[in-house]
Amino acid sequence: MIFCVGRVVTGIGNGMNTSTIPTYQAECSKSHNRGLLICIEGSTVAIGTVISYWVDFGCMYGSDDLTWRFPIAFQCLFGFIIIFGLMFLPESPRWLFARDRYEEGEYVIAALAGQEINHPDVQMQKTLILDSLRA
């Protein structure tokens, strides 16, 4: 029963990841990089699946405890890497503006573009986001 609950929780988590990562990438990347980043995200999912299949195959020949404990524990490594990496990602500018955190939103846009906050491109991006939120 515990494994069934775990499968549901990880399935929901994976569904949330695969639906929010492309949106976040689209909001935080330059337009000429978006397609590449989406492809990298899809490739990462496929590579992770291949790794899990090979780990399961390799553990098949081990002891009874190894055949199920190691694959379950091994997937936690990637979860910790993702959680650690999230600490270094900026908030979505659109999310910040939607919550009336305008200064932070401007700062994130400027940091992502490598420009000053008062640069015309940063202000134009801010205006586009605010207009889309008002629509």
Automatic annotation (TrEMBL):
**How does the protein's chain sit in the membrane according to the entry?**
Multi-pass membrane protein
* Keyword presence, Transmembrane helix: yes
Where in this chain does the record put each Major facilitator superfamily (MFS) profile domain? 1-135
Q: Which Gene3D superfamilies match?
A: MFS general substrate transporter like domains (1.20.1250.20)
Entry's InterPro entries?
MFS_dom (IPR020846), MFS_sugar_transport-like (IPR005828), MFS_Sugar_Transporters (IPR050360), MFS_trans_sf (IPR036259), Sugar_transporter_CS (IPR005829)
Q: Where found in the cell? A: Membrane
What does the record list as GO biological process? glycerol transmembrane transport
Q: Which GO terms describe its cellular component?
A: membrane
Q: Name one GO molecular function term.
A: carbohydrate:proton symporter activity
Q: Where are the transmembrane segments?
A: 35-55, 67-89
- Which one Pfam family would you cite for this protein? Sugar_tr
Which UniProt key words apply to this protein? Membrane, Transmembrane, Transmembrane helix
Query: Which protein family is named in the record?
Result: Belongs to the major facilitator superfamily. Sugar transporter (TC 2.A.1.1) family.
Report the protein name in the record. Answer: Major facilitator superfamily (MFS) profile domain-containing protein
The species this protein was found in: Aspergillus chevalieri
